[in-house]
Design brief:
Elements lengths: L1 H43 L2 H10 L13 H9 L2 H7 L7 H13 L3 H9 L5 H26 L19 H5 L12 H36 L2 H16 L6 H10 L1 H14 L4 H13 L3 H11 L3 H20 L2 H4 L1
Helix pairs in contact: 1-6, 1-9, 1-12, 2-3, 3-4, 3-5, 5-7, 6-7, 7-13, 9-12, 11-12, 13-15, 14-15
């Protein structure tokens, strides 16, 4: 009986602490995310986006992509993966092209927002943005070459039977914003896009995940779940050069995304501060591969090859992190 009471009390305390920390962490992240999100929406409706798209179209051939691929790729720099898929409507990209676009964008997307979130836990914005940009170029070139061999693509492949193909495409319709009927080049339209995005894409999404996540983390810490499963993942820690304490935030970020990995790191650091080496290597891994479940499903529905988007991306992240772990100056 005493043991049951003790376990019940431990569970209640873990739930309470997790809920409070979830609200606190979510509020902290919102203060960073909302201004950046608003700035990005406004930027998307300026001539700067068209200028970037026009000037990048000529270099898409480096990735064996048609010039139109510059539109979703540039959109991805300032938006999330859903914005990229929405930006593909009106074009007829082949599955091979969609796959390569996905591989590039998943390395280098939502840069202003994720850089700001990463900075809250010590990821230097300029350094990691440059790293992601370089990784996106290398990944795009390799993915373009591999897709040409394995998926039947060729230089500048574009037209095909990918699901994203026109204004009436089902995926594009699902991704329409609640205020999509407004003229988004007007200030009223921009305001409602920001408002709907903050409510549906930022606040509600964050609350829906971060509070349960913090509660789960408290339960895992209270019942020493990580300590129990750590032996099974020690091989991964050794390969990536990270400590066992860095495993939980890395796995959270891998499965759910940088924002939630950052939220986990904030709480973990309060209990057991991670070393600079661990933080650096976590950043290297997560900025190469994060939110793997959601993004794989999203781009698979859009017409991308699942094996490429999931396993090639994961393999690149492991390889790059393992190499970084063996460069003392980089990982120090």
């Amino acid at each position: 009986m005493p043991t049951k009471i003790s376990n019940r009390s431990k569970a209640a305390l873990a739930f309470k602490d997790g809920f409070v920390k979830g609200v606190r962490t979510g509020a902290f992240l919102l203060r960073v995310m909302i201004p950046i999100y608003a700035a990005v929406v406004i930027l998307r409706h300026t001539p700067a986006i068209e200028f970037l798209q026009e000037n990048l179209a000529s270099v898409m051939g480096v990735f064996s992509l048609p010039g139109d691929a510059a539109v979703p790729i540039v959109t991805g720099i300032f938006s999330d993966e859903y914005g990229v898929v929405a930006a593909m409507r009106g074009f007829s990209f082949s599955p091979a092209a969609i796959t390569v676009i996905a591989m590039i964008v998943l390395c280098f997307h939502t840069i202003p927002l994720e850089a700001a979130v990463g900075q809250t836990i010590g990821f230097h914005p300029a350094k990691y943005s440059l790293y992601r940009f370089s990784l996106a170029i290398a990944t795009g070139i390799f993915a373009g070459w591999l897709a040409a061999l394995a998926l039947g693509g060729g230089a500048g492949y574009g037209a095909g039977d990918g699901i994203i193909g026109g204004a009436d495409a089902p995926v594009a319709a699902m991704l329409s914003t609640p205020f999509g009927s407004f003229a988004l080049d007007s200030w009223q339209g921009i305001f409602f896009e920001i408002l709907s995005g903050v409510i549906f894409n930022v606040a509600l999404s964050l609350a829906r995940v971060i509070i349960p996540l913090m509660i789960l983390i408290e339960f895992m810490l209270a019942y020493k779940v990580v300590d129990r499963i750590a032996p099974a993942f020690r091989w991964l820690c050794r390969v990536l050069g990270i400590s066992n304490d860095a495993l939980l935030p890395l796995l959270v970020g891998l499965l759910m995304g940088v924002t939630y990995g950052a939220g986990t790191l904030i709480e973990i650091n309060k209990r057991t501060p991670l070393s600079n080496r661990d933080l650096t290597l976590i950043g290297v891994f997560l900025y190469a591969c994060h939110g793997i479940i959601e993004t794989t499903v999203l781009f698979a529905v859009a017409g991308a090859n699942v094996l490429f988007v999931c396993f090639l991306r994961l393999g690149i992240a492991v390889l790059v992190t393992a190499i970084a772990a063996r460069l003392p100056r980089f990982a120090a």
